[in-house]
């Protein structure tokens, strides 16, 4: 296997797997204070576009990497949104 | 311009520009509580690998997109690290 292919695979693995510790941290601490909802909204849209791009090009590695990233980024987006709404509802109820 | 190229450009723009609101939020609030240092360490490494991948392939769009993402992701990583160290030093000093 060419070294350039290895670099590409390592890059795809890192930029995909990187979101796992962020999801775990939110699940463990329930803390989403510093997280930007705008970032994850725009990023998730971008990954969705990369997924579409990969499907049109029938590029399986690109499809698989972006499918996993989409699930993880959407998880961070959903968890952050849910936590923020809960905090706000509690404040309103108090 | 082919629609597929437009999808690729839109995807690259979103997954690059997405980090700007995260950097601005940290600068505005100084709050990095929910942010995972492991995520940004692995993600920044991954973007660095994508940059190397683009250089080897002499792919200018890939080089430019990943260069900007690298700067932004490294900024979030650096700001988060700096803020965490400050908080810890204050706790030790107290």
Automatic annotation (TrEMBL), chains A, B:
Keywords associated with the record: Membrane, Transmembrane, Transmembrane helix
GO CC list: membrane
InterPro entries on file: PQ-loop_rpt, SemiSWEET
Topological relation to the membrane, as annotated: Multi-pass membrane protein
Main localisation: membrane
GO molecular function, one term: sugar transmembrane transporter activity
Stretches that traverse the bilayer: 6-27, 39-56, 62-81
Subcellular location: Membrane
Protein name from the UniProt record: MtN3 and saliva related transmembrane protein
Originating organism: Marinobacterium nitratireducens
Native organism taxonomy: Bacteria, Pseudomonadati, Pseudomonadota, Gammaproteobacteria, Oceanospirillales
């Amino acid at each position: 296997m060419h070294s350039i292919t290895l670099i590409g695979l390592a890059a795809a693995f890192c930029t995909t797997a990187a979101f796992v510790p962020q999801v775990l941290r939110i699940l463990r601490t329930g803390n989403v204070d510093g997280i930007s909802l705008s970032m994850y909204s725009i990023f998730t849209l971008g990954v969705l576009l990369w997924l579409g791009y990969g499907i049109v090009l029938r590029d399986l590695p690109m499809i698989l990497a972006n499918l996993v990233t989409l699930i993880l980024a959407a998880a961070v987006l959903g968890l952050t949104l849910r936590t923020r709404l809960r905090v706000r509802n509690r404040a309103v109820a108090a």
